[in-house]
Amino acid sequence: MNRTVLNWIGTAELRAHPGRILLTASAIAIGVGLGFAVHLVNASALNEFSRGVQAVNGDADLQVHSVTPRGFDENLYPKLARVAGIADASPVIELAAQSGDVPITLLGIDFFRAATVTPVLLGRLALNSSAADSLSGTDGLSPDSIFLSRTALAALHKGTGDRIEVESGGKHALLEIAGTLPGVSGDENLAVADIAAAQWRLGTQGFIQRVDLKLADGADLGRVRAGVQSVLSPDAEIVTRQNAETRAGTLSRAYRINLDMLALMALLTGAFLAYSAQALSVARRHGQFALMRVLGMRRQSVLTEVLFEGAAIGIAGGAAGVFLGWGLAAAALRLLGGDLGGGYFSGTRPELVFDPAAAVRFFVLGLFCAVAGSVLPARAAARAEPAIAIKQVGDPADPRKRPGAVLPLVLLLAGGAAALAPPINDLPLFGYLSIALLLAGGIAAMPLIARVLLAPFRALRLPAPVDLALKHLWGAPGQAAIALCGMVASTSLMIAMAVMIWSFRNSVDAWLVQVLPSDIYLRVDSGDGDALTLEAQQRLREIRGIAEIRFRKNMPLWLSPERPAVDWMATQMNGHDPSGILPLIGKTVAVPAGAIPVWISEPAHWIYGYTPGQWISVPLAVQKRGQARKFFIAGEWRDYGRQQGAIAMDLGDYTALTGDQLRTDAAIDLAPGADEARVMADVRAALPPATSRNVTIADSRAIRAVSLRIFDRSFAVTYLLEGIAILVGLAGVAATFSSQTLARSKEFGMLRHVGVMRRQIIAMLAAEGALLGIVGVAAGIGLGLAISQVLIQVINPQSFHWTMDIRLPLPLFVFVAVALIAASAGTALIAGRKAVSRESILAVREDW
Amino acid sequence: MMDRMVAPGPDIKPLLCVRGLRKTVPGGRVLFTGLELAVARGEFVAIMGESGAGKSTLLNLIAGLDAADAGEISIQGHAVEKLDDDGRTELRRRTLGCVFQAFHLLPHLNLAQNVALPLALQDSAGSAALEKAGRMLADVGLQDRDHDYPRDLSGGELQRVAIARALVHGPSIILADEPTGNLDPETAERILELFSSRVRRSGASVVLVTHSPIAAAVAGRKYLLRTSGLIAA
Amino acid sequence: MHRRVIAMLGVVAAAIAGMGSARGLSGGVQFPSVQPGRMFQFPADHGAHPEFRNEWWYITGWLNRPNASPVGFQVTFFRIRPGFEEDNPSAFAARQILFAHAAISDPAAGKLLHAERIYRAGFGLARAATGDTDVVIGDWRLTRSPDGKFHAQAGGGDFALDLSFAPTQPPLLEGESGYSQKGPKPDEASDYYSIPHLNVSGTLMRNGLPQAVSGSAWLDREWSSDYLDPRATGWDWTGLNFDDGSALMAFRIRGAKQENFWAGGTLRDSDGTVHAFGPGDVTFLPVRRWQSPQTGADYPVETVLRVHLPAGDREWRLTPLFDNQEYDARRTGGPVYWEGAVRAPGGSGYLEMTGYFHPLKM
Q1: What is the C-alpha to C-alpha distance for residues C211 and C215, in angstroms, rounded to an integer?
Q2: A624-638, A728-742, A811-825, B66-80, range with the lowest pLDDT
Q3: Which of A389, A428, A716, B219 is the most exposed place for a label (fewest CB within 10 A)?
Q4: Chain A, 255-294: which have a CB under 8 Å from a chain B CB?
Q5: CB C165 within 8 A of CB C149
Q6: Which of C14, C82, C331 sits opposite A131 (nearest CB)?
Q7: A142 to chain C: which residues are within 8 Å by CB?
Q8: Would you write out chain C's pLDDT as a tens digit for each of its 362 residues?
Q9: Cβ–Cβ gap A2/B120 under 8 Å
Q10: How far apart are CA B54 and CA B40, in angstroms?
């Protein structure tokens, strides 16, 4: 193919229809931009998180960490130090602490050990003498000293030499800022103090939370791990930096992948739009391509020409999309945070990390979509018989021919089959494939669907313009399909998301009512840090206006080094009967005599493969040291609150096992006539001041409201993505329709000549638009419902590990239907006015 | 001059040779059968017939755009029906020039580009092709209008451009399908004159189909298209 | 007399003082002070004296290797009682800090090879037992077996020592029957005894290869709560084993102008006669100086040591095994000093010189 001709035709098309090409390119750009932005935000957030993990962990080769905040027996430390292949071991107290209202991760370290194992955790003394630089090893041995990361110093508005009060676990210590932590990078609020002082003043006697390990030169990591494992008690586990990051990744992975996929769906809409634009452009230029063929252009060259145009659109759209994505990501990080409102990475405001590889990937994806969207039109253009095509305009389809049903049927069936496939690597990839196939099948079926949907109208006696419109659509359903495909793609995706979200929201709402039967709830936000002591519990019980108060112990418990901790909930049950406290699903299994029953949440079932009737071994810190306890799974309950899984047990059992009297939660039933606000104030007043500041007290209505608000917030981005996709789809309808209308101006000229009134033509076009809208909406909603089932039955259980009851947002359906039909009739009307107002001479002149 | 317009002698190999051509339309009606035609270098042949007689179809068959039911067409010794699509396209590109009733200019290319299209398709460099196209345009009376677009032109002018395009790459055979059909008689006359003079100067052979005796008058040989084939008129 | 511990004490004190801690670091803690006339009891005094602020087991000497030149070595274990927050019940509380230092002076290497360990006592990973010598610091240890031999294991990186030390002479009580004064105030003193002429046997690992070694060493044992006068800026110390069985220890403490601020020493003749030296009896006369290319510090590496004896002055010219026996411990929080193997006519031993880079402070 000659480059000159390619350029001439390509640039001529761009000059002739810049708006349409711009629209197609921007559809691609929006798809690429959304995808790239979501990817960048996710990558930046994860990167930030992993830097945080690194800052807290120092640079240890290997780490043994406790599975609960309480820690493990400190005598594990010498055992670990003596494991063959360990060069040195550094014991660490790791506490969730705070100073004022600034949360701080407090590390108590043995400076001598850290000097060899995790030197980045060593503080630098703020002395002015030159000797100070050489003081590392023993810095801060003083029990009063604390070293703060730069971020913590800034957050506290303090400098070296100032004193700060640090609180953790209801204990307080007044410490002097002796210096900074120059080795700590990242935005972590980190404080380092002497281990002995930290254990005594803020921690638990006899317990530490972790031991950092340094491997001897040349030691075999596998063998050392095995050696370490052999001395570990059940309440401790090996953590490497890698699996700490994996944990963070796992927590939000499903959410991130789903956002990524949704963004790709926007790109898919872009691809369909590229298809409709290209199909139209090719149809319009049928005669031109025929002429080129007559003049001696090869079939292959015609194909190349159209694909080349698609590629040019893809390059422009892809490049613009990468920039758009960068800007969107920056804006999203500023406005929504690193989790795009999902609530997974609390407190961090990540720095945007540009990822050139991903930029290239998304650019190529955009290019691919544009080219893929051009393949069918290009083939159509190349296949056309030039001798016939040179005389005809537009869609050469024979009105008597029935649109094919095989391809759409195959695609739809394949989509259904893909939905049945299991997840891959915990991700519902086949689920997404299923959605893509259903979409493609649905759109391939559009001509057929248009016929089927229009059939009932044919029997009606209709006013002339509407009848003409109907005949046109009936005769050229392919044109209708082309106009609609972008709109159908975006509408069906939006409907699917809406059905899923609506079902989800209703299920969550119902669940909230079930799990929050009491009037007032109290939660210690800092976990064990400020948990309610026996004394505090007693004070709460004595508050007037409280009919009943039930305490609960919540804590994270790591069941697998690669996964986030499950929520271990010890809660008061009346004789091992959790009904009324937990929203049980499925049937309950009879508990064998002597067994300690636990109830698992739905996500725990999915993630760990636990089922009722099973015995599980859990590293709960039991009173009798070194002994893991076995528990019997008595039932399962629905839980939307803890994606990482939760396990509930009776509080009495828990206390008997662990001797732990601290409580983190309380549910309060009010006495009749009690003043809720006063009771809440009294509860707060009854707590120790440090605890009081870290406690959330809310009535169940407020909790429900907040929960639903969080829910809506985390889906806000989803709505946004879908909204943009649907706007792009609508713009596609407008562009397609107006150009189809313009292409038919000769037809209108003829109609005017035979005596059809101008307004009748406009009415005809409006009717066509409305009919098109009806077909599009019906197909979109039908397809959307099918896709929503994939979302609800496949993608949610596979990626979030929960199920839901299906609810249809009927008002939204009505709204979408009316809006889209009106919009498409409106665009048709506008296009029609333009077409009819053209000079008839021009209409005659328009050969093709 | 006119003495060269006689039937070719046995020693001269015809440029275009059609033997035993048969074509039916999808409904089964026979358009023509046993059609024979030989056109020598520089010869001007006109084929007349009623609307629907298959004049355009005959041209499509010669151009390799349609397939016959039986018979042979050879152009410069190449059997058209034996070539694949790319081969026919190649043959068309190098040896044929076409003029249509509806002009068929690309609306978004300027006049020079439109004329230069056949050259561009033969991989000629853009600027040289455009210069040549400009000379061709001047030759058909459209000096300095290289950068105008088809929308700016009248029907007669459009056909002048089409004639320039048909000749620009020096084809051996010009196929003209009712080139004056869309023009008023006065313009038609001037265009015919231009067409025949330019074609003759180029030395190309012409197959002109038309229902207009006036148009056919410029031809050396005239035939009527009947179902049984061509009858000399 | 020694040395690194003082530097370390200085570091700890500086760290604590620099923080301006309101809680007195030694607030509630009373360190016992060294008194003259103490009765030494063995093996109990070979063990730790944890109530004192600092203490060390300090072995220096020469090792002979088959088919190779002799090397100097030192294996030194230290104990510090920081004295802060001793009421902290935590098992991590730093009631005692133990650290150790080992070095090889190999002329072929042209510099010191050294390794260190530092731990807070506890969890069985580090301890300094009372009753007899039993000091453990991570994988290093110094013990005394019932047959009276000392055993040291130390090393890391490019060398390791596994040595036994068999006494050939009774302990030598330094100063006034073991009461060694370091300054004009009676409190500025230590309990101090030495065991010269230890017969060394064992293994020296160099670059993964074991070498059987033998030689002669010197053990210094010293504990104290109050060591240096604030006016002191550094000191020189030497301990020499002579071939005839006599042994000499001498030190001087320098003031701000490098003048003799205090001095002392002991000579035990081959017949067992002990001569104690007062501040006026010991003189170090620099003969040749060497400037460290690493730190720029200027050391009198060759010195004439003169002591005043009733029979008249005696002097020995001390020549180093090689010049560059400086140790720069700043990276691990220690001082810069010179400590190396020296020869003297008819004997050999170790020389230590501190305070030549920066004045040492307490």
Answers
A1: 13
A2: A728-742
A3: A716
A4: 287-288, 291-294
A5: yes
A6: C14
A7: 15-16, 19, 21, 25, 84
A8: 444 444 444 444 433 333 333 333 444 678 898 999 899 999 999 999 999 989 999 999 999 998 888 999 999 999 988 887 788 899 998 889 998 999 999 988 888 888 888 899 999 999 999 999 999 999 999 999 999 999 999 988 789 999 999 999 999 999 889 999 888 888 889 999 999 999 999 999 987 788 999 999 999 999 998 777 788 888 899 999 999 999 999 999 998 888 888 999 999 999 999 999 999 899 999 999 999 888 888 999 999 999 999 888 999 999 999 999 998 877 666 778 899 999 999 999 999 998 888 776 54
A9: yes
A10: 22
Tell me the nearest-neighbour CA distance from A761 into chain B, angstroms: 26
What is the complex's ipTM, to 2 decimals? 0.87
Bridge pairing between strands C260-268 and C274-277: antiparallel
Q: Which residue of A has its CA nearest to B56?
A: A387
Nearest residue on chain B to A287, judged by CA atoms? Answer: B104
Amino acid letter for position A443 = I
C-alpha distance across the termini of chain B, in Å: 21
Domain spans in chain C, listed from the N-terminal domain onward: 4-354
Q: Is the dihedral of CA C150, C151, C152, C158 positive or negative?
A: positive
- Looking at the complex, does the CB of residue A231 fall below 8 Å from at least one CB of chain C? no
Q: What is the pLDDT of residues A707-718, one digit of tens each?
A: 677 667 666 666
DSSP string, A55-91: HHHTT-SEEEEESSTT-EETTHHHHHHTSTTEEEEEE
Judging contacts by C-beta atoms under 8 Å, the chain C residues touching residue A144 are 19, 21-23
Torsion of CA B113, B118, B123, B124, to 10 degrees: -60
**Mean pLDDT throughout B26-40?**
88
Residues with Cβ < 8 Å from A616, sequence gap 6 or more? A598, A610, A630, A631, A633
Q: Work out the minimum CA distance from B9 to partner chain A, whole angstroms.
A: 32
Q: Which domains can be identified in chain B, with CATH numbers?
A: 2-232 (3.40.50.300)
* C contact set with A (CB within 8 A): 8, 11-12, 14-16, 18-23, 25, 82, 84-85, 88-94, 97, 118-120, 123-125, 138, 330-334, 358
Task: Specify the CATH number for C4-354; select among 1.10.10.10, 3.50.50.60, 1.20.1420.30, 2.40.370.10.
Answer: 2.40.370.10
